[in-house]
Design brief:
Blueprint: H1 2-5, H2 9-36, H3 38-44, H4 53-73, H5 77-95, H6 105-120
Helix pairs in contact: 2-4, 2-6, 4-5, 5-6
Keywords: Membrane, Transmembrane, Transmembrane helix
InterPro entries: DoxX (IPR032808)
Pfam family, one: DoxX
């Protein structure tokens, strides 16, 4: 019965590659610059809901730094995708609604990556994963 629910190695490799590359891109391009240049980011961040720069920047840092670390490890990966998806939707639909697909392609691609991971989960190549039990040949 265990074999019926296990994924082929290439699927696990693909999900790991998607997690790794998506998270590293999000961290490098968006997350880490917000942390390393926090004061400057407070003066530049858009505030689409009028909550102030701190309440706009802190959720973005959570979604773009903390959540990718969970996804990279595969721990609470589906749950960690939700704040990222939320921040990306706000960015694409509320902050930059006038952008063409070409102008917002990076954001849309990140949205595709993290929505896919939210739907599929992290795969079996993750911290704390238990290898599927071997089923003897001919059984099952």
């Amino acid at each position: 019965m265990t074999r019926a629910f296990s994924q082929p190695p290439r699927v696990n490799a693909g999900l790991f590659f998607l997690r790794l590359t998506g998270c590293l891109l999000l961290l490098y391009v968006h997350g880490l610059p917000k942390v390393f240049h926090f004061s400057e980011e407070l003066t530049r961040i858009e505030d689409p809901f009028g909550l102030g720069p701190w309440m706009s920047l802190l959720p973005a840092i959570f979604a773009e730094v903390i959540c990718p670390l969970f996804i990279l490890t595969g721990v609470f990966a589906r749950l960690a995708c939700l704040p990222i998806i939320g921040v990306l939707l706000v960015a694409m639909l509320a902050v930059h609604p006038g952008w063409s697909i070409a102008e917002g392609q990076f954001g849309w691609l990140l949205l595709i990556i993290f929505t896919t991971l939210a739907l599929t989960g992290p795969g079996q190549w993750r911290l704390g994963a238990v290898a599927p039990a071997e089923v003897p040949h001919g059984a099952g």
